[in-house]
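Board notes (copied after class):
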Amino acid sequence: MAKVQLDRIDQQILDMLIENARTAFTEIAKKLNISAGTVHVRVKKLEKSGIIKGASLTVDYDKLGYSFIAYVGIYLDKTSKTRFVLERLREIPFVTVAHITTGKYNIFCKIRARDTQHAKDVIFMIDDIDGIIRTETMISLEESINDKKRLMHYIFKDSTKKA
């Protein structure tokens, strides 16, 4: 698959949309001293190329009472059960992220819960899924880095060196 080349304007548009996906094109245009039509065309180009895949909203789960975060490493009795287990995990609303992995675990997932008791209940739900032989849980004490822009800025800087 060919790598998509982005110019400085594309990068600045992405930067602003990563910060706030709801930023109006007119606001972006004003900050970049270009027309809103140009922003619209460039965003459509980024969507068509697959660089932008929809827009997202950040929910503050702490304010909704779900501040407990844990990561669960899942061991399967057979790797052939991976899809089945992922389908069961999808049925548990407190499992917010799941990755098929290599190494120690077959699946690694993130859960959100109200408190430790609720987290224990969620982990028991996971343990009850057919095909899981055991789990290992790590409690998140604090999310220290959640930077959506740092890697993108590195990629931009790296691509200009190669050009």
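Comment from the instructor: The radius of gyration is 20 Å. The chain is about 40% helix and 20% strand.
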